[in-house]
Amino acid sequence: MIEKSQIDQVTPTPIGSIRPGKIIAVHLNYKSRAAQRGRVPQFPSYFLKPSSSVSYSGEAIERPAGTELLAFEGEIALIIGRPTRHAAVQDGWAAIAGVTAANDFGIYDMRYADRGSNLRSKGGDGFTPLGPMVLPATQLPADGLRLRAWVNGRLVQEDKTIDLIFPFGQLVADLSQLITLEPGDIILTGTPAGSSVVQPGDIVEVEVDAPNLLGAPSTGRLVTRVVQGEAGFTNSGALPAVDDAQRVEAWGSEHAAGLPEPVRAPVLTEELRANLCSVGTATLSHQLRKRGFNNVSINGVRSTKPEKRLVGRARTLRYIAYREDLFAEHGEGYNAQKRAFDKLGPDDVLVMEARGEKYAGTLGDILALRAQMLGASGIVTDGGARDLAPLAELQIPVYHAGGHPAVLGLKHVPWEGDVTISCGGAAVQPGDIIVGDADGVLVIPPQLIEEVANGAIDQERQEKFIGEQVASGKSVHGLYPLSGEWKMRYEEWLQTR
After folding, report:
1. Is the Cα torsion angle 380, 385, 387, 389 positive or negative in sign?
2. How far is CA 174 from CA 43, 75, 185, in A?
3. Can you state the angle between helices 281-290 and 449-471, rounded to 10 degrees?
4. How much is the pLDDT for 2?
5. Residue pair 312/345 in contact by the 8 Å Cβ criterion
6. Residue 40: alpha-carbon gap to chain centroid
7. Cis peptide before 481 (omega within 30 of 0)
8. Fewer beta carbons below 10 Å: N end or C end of the chain?
């Protein structure tokens, strides 16, 4: 990183009025945002914004009538300074003429209709404010910039370019492999954690500076006022629509969106995990039956790894029956299925309700590999699975109702995640404890887990004692289950262990 003593004071210049030929935006590029979203991209990915979306500091942005989720994203904008094609990563920064502040506004109400293109959701007039000043890139350290954003005077975003997933030079090199970057083109380089929804009357400010350089040169604050638009949508195309999943994405969390937070399962400590792994599902099932739980087995599924024990906390996904119009709206793009897999983490088990419909795949080896890479413990579906041979080669156990080569859209529409579902005849809630082995899969209510695990351990001790007696020729009468004198002999046996 360049230090203060290494460079003369940087002189910003006003942005003026520009109309870039291309505005290319990066989907996900800050580690803090990746942590918030629960996924880290392997490669940068992009979308285009029209040049008509450009606006400037002091101008207002309209939240279109009939929409709910207008979100801001403070970003650093790179302004291309020369024609660039096939740039090397180490030369990418040299193609940048200047840096300014940007705000990548979007309406989440239209994301479903864009299917990943973001054209309508992020391409509206005024949805790309820029400015007010441009810092010359030749006088800046690419890894020494800071981005900050405020809403109504409260600091809500702050991050530094040293924490980018993909540095600026890599973005230029990657894009210029196939696209000629021309002078005046703009690259929006991603937003850090803290992006959220704004309302009419809110003031959003974004600033980029180089705090380690002499004078801490700055773009100044890019100021945008949110106003309520009056023109509504017509029936000429898709209409705004939101659900709770989009509300959480836009606001940043269930709490911020005013929604109930998902049930948090008990921590699977190493001791609890070891206890559960030391007993079979048959024993656990008996312990659950003793406590009045008779319908906690996920029936009709088999494992790709029957020799491997499954222990984890449930995350859920529900499919509904296929219907052409619903699949067109919910089945393509970054759908509920892909979001569910991307949200998985260590100790998670994704349990999928497919209505017992096994004549179509509900997952294949790519999604299972994604779950394995995220550290998930396993996958359970009462539907079919594709790619059984490569699935069996993975380390993660996948319980399924049978193999089938058909794709998702033959029988299923991925609908929603982290809700209460039915899988293989058992009710499953997010946070339930899932235990599986070669005999099958059980769903254990989290409030019972310690009691059931301890009871199962004691039961298997008794069965070990009983087995030893039967192996020595004893009758099972009075011995199985333990009663009378055999109980005393069992207590004596325990003292020797």
Report:
1. positive
2. 9, 19, 15
3. 120
4. 34
5. no
6. 9
7. yes
8. C
How far apart (Å, rounded) are the C-alpha atoms in residues 168 and 166? 7
Spatial CB neighbours of 478, under 8 Å, sequence gap ≥ 6:
484, 485, 486
Q: Model confidence over 442-452: pLDDT tens digits?
A: 999 998 888 88
Q: How are beta strands 46-49 and 23-26 bridged, if at all? A: antiparallel
Indicate the burial class of 11 (C-beta count within 10 angstroms; 0-12, 13-18, 19 or more).
exposed
DSSP, collapsed to helix, strand or coil, labels residue 415 as strand
Give 268-276's long-range contacts (Cβ < 8 A, gap of 24+): 268/311, 268/312, 268/313, 268/347, 268/433, 272/449, 272/450, 272/453, 273/311, 275/453, 275/454, 275/456, 275/457, 276/309, 276/311, 276/433, 276/435, 276/449, 276/453
Go through 36-68 and write b for each residue having 16 or more CB atoms within 10 A of its CB, e for each that does not: bbebeeeebeebebbbebbbbbeeebbbbeebb
Distances (CA, A) of 143 to 33, 133, 140, 161, 167: 17, 19, 9, 5, 8
| E strand segments, 260-309 | 297-298, 302-303
Q: b/e for 358-395, b at 16 or more Cβ within 10 A?
A: bebbbbbbebbbbbbebebbbbbbbbbbbbbeebeebe
d(CA 106, CA 442): 43
- Cα separation, 244 vs 234, in Å, equals 24
Nearest residue to 296 (alpha-carbon basis) of 398, 399, 440: 440
Q: Give the Cα separation of 233 and 239 in Å (integer).
A: 6
Strands (E), 67-145: 70-71, 74-80, 96-103, 106-107, 128-130, 133-136
Residues with Cβ within 8 Å of 461's Cβ and at least 6 positions away in sequence, in order, are 494, 497
Residues in CB range of 244: below 8 A, 6 or more apart: 257, 259
Q: Which amino acid is at 315?
A: R
76 forms bridges with which residues in the sheet?
101
Q: How many CB atoms lie within 10 A of CB 162?
A: 14
Backbone angles phi, psi at 104, to 5 degrees: -95, 80
**Collapsing DSSP states into helix, strand and coil, what is residue 49?**
strand
Distance CA 57, CA 442 (A): 58
280-314: pLDDT as tens digits: 898 899 889 989 999 999 999 999 999 999 999 99
At 54, which amino acid appears? V
Spans of the chain, pLDDT less than 50: 1-7
Contact 377, 433 (CB under 8 A): no
Per residue, the 3-state secondary structure of 423-454, as one string, reads: ECCEEECCCCEEEEECCEEEEECHHHHHHHHH
- Supply the pLDDT for residue 472: 85
Identify which of 178, 180, 170 has the alpha carbon closest to the alpha carbon of residue 43. 170
Q: Rounded to an integer, what distance in angstroms lies between the CA atom of residue 399 and that of residue 440?
A: 9
Give the span between the Cα atoms of 328 and 339, in whole angstroms.
17
